[in-house]
Design goal:
The structure is a homodimer. In chain A, helix 2 runs antiparallel to helix 4. Helices cover about 15% and strands about 40% of the residues of chain A. By secondary structure, the first copy, chain A, is α+β, with helices and mostly antiparallel strands. Chain A is built from five helices and ten strands; from the N terminus they run H-E-H-H-E-E-E-E-E-H-H-E-E-E-E. Chain A has a ten-stranded antiparallel sheet.
Chain lengths: ~260, ~260
């Protein structure tokens, strides 16, 4: 593999009809899933994947993900995703994913923060032994780092959900993209016809399991909503969703609804 | 495109960790989704896809799907899917999907029956105008056609579910693979540790929409279970799930649990 392919790794995609949401676009949960997939594939290729981590008795855990899109890939559209590592330190690696249209023009970015944890203690490990495999790229990413997501003291709306078999991943926890769906499911189909998500931030704080009954709490205004998924006393995820009205599609504008 | 690539169309896949279920295998709903995807991709390539159907004021609708697996693709496994049309008549096309391991050995099959419907009347159209694009292959498929799935008179178990935004597809109906998940979600994680689905049959009878509250009804023995998703008086899907204990993995055996 050439050095520049080690530093930056790309996959071409085609968005089939069957993969689209009701607005005939890529859903946010599929985008989240694809960002996780390409991060995993790149880590495997540079020798910093799950099998390398297993040699250290460790595993990668996604800690934070921020997705910001000028627009989503549309039905029957070809697009490409390119990923690179922006920075590493002893405890985490920050990875960028760029989503570009068929002409190579960027239409959005993801920022993913991965932590290496010890499989037994579930505590962060020192990533120094795999630093040599984690070569950061100089390439810039224009979107802001994740906001500090704080506790919701008094929710405007709450709902309950029980996780089921199909929500569970290979680690026997609720799958990362399922939380994205559960959060967006707090709004109606009609709301998504009129608005789109321009920025989505999620912090994964603890794990939910099959049959856990969780509370989804939200609070905010017509543009920015904070959400929490809570299982008894413990917070599973915190999230911030920024909506823009669809008539401003193509801009990152901040018009309220 | 060569004639044999028109007749039989293949895609290579790699099952990433993030795509796996709790048993570290491909989930049945992802398999269903991939079967729909490859069918769509092949139809597009031979000039019988959604855009050709739209010229006739029509669309493809999946009517029945039967999946039978010796085993599922496993975590980090390469596999291939190959599809061909087995038969066509005026009102439907029957398509086969073979799933093969990295050595080319078949590990399972799908049978999909697609109907062409008029977009306005929702009635079946005459497929004769696109017969020339639908060239059946001689290649055999070893799995049985779908059973006749009849009404469940007295259910053993029932549960309720409300469809949400993330369950909806580009047609603004509940997405085909979501019904597969909802049906399997009637069993526990532990049950799937001890048993796997060897055969899954589903008939799509009518459409469910966002915010529909449906009843999932099931009845059967430890090996074969029939399920219905019912919305008020109308049946949305009927399904039959055949389980085998996991200790017989690798056989198509009919041992009861």
């Amino acid at each position: 593999m050439q050095n520049d392919q080690r530093r930056e790794f790309s996959i071409d995609y085609f968005l089939s009809a069957a993969e689209c949401n009701a607005q005939q676009e890529m859903s946010l949960s599929l985008l989240a899933q694809r960002c996780i997939d390409i991060a995993t594939a790149h880590a495997n290729r540079i020798g910093a994947g799950y099998s390398r981590m297993l040699e250290l008795g460790a595993s990668w855990v996604l800690s934070r993900m921020t997705l910001e899109m000028i627009r989503m890939p549309r039905i029957n559209e070809s697009f490409a995703m390119t990923t690179w590592i922006q920075s590493v330190n002893r405890h985490f690696s920050e990875r960028i994913v760029e989503i570009a249209d068929a002409k190579g023009v960027a239409i959005g970015y993801g920022r993913l923060v991965w932590v290496g944890i010890d499989i037994v203690s579930r505590r962060p490990i020192d990533l120094t032994p795999i630093f040599s495999a984690l070569e950061p790229s100089e390439r810039a990413c224009p979107i802001e780092r994740q906001s500090r997501l704080t506790a919701i003291d008094q929710a405007d709306e709450t709902s309950m959900y029980r996780f089921r078999y199909s929500d569970i991943d290979f680690n026997r926890h609720v799958t990362s993209s399922r939380y994205v769906e559960l959060m967006l499911d707090q709004w109606s189909l009609d709301y998504f016809d009129r608005n789109r998500v321009s920025r989505f931030e999620i912090a994964y704080l603890s794990e939910a399991h099959c049959d856990d009954v969780v509370e989804v709490r939200r609070k905010g205004d017509s543009r920015v909503q904070d959400l929490e998924i809570v299982n008894g006393g413990s917070v599973i995820t915190r999230s911030r969703v920024t909506f823009v009205p669809r008539h401003t599609d193509g801009s990152m504008g901040c018009d309220a609804e």
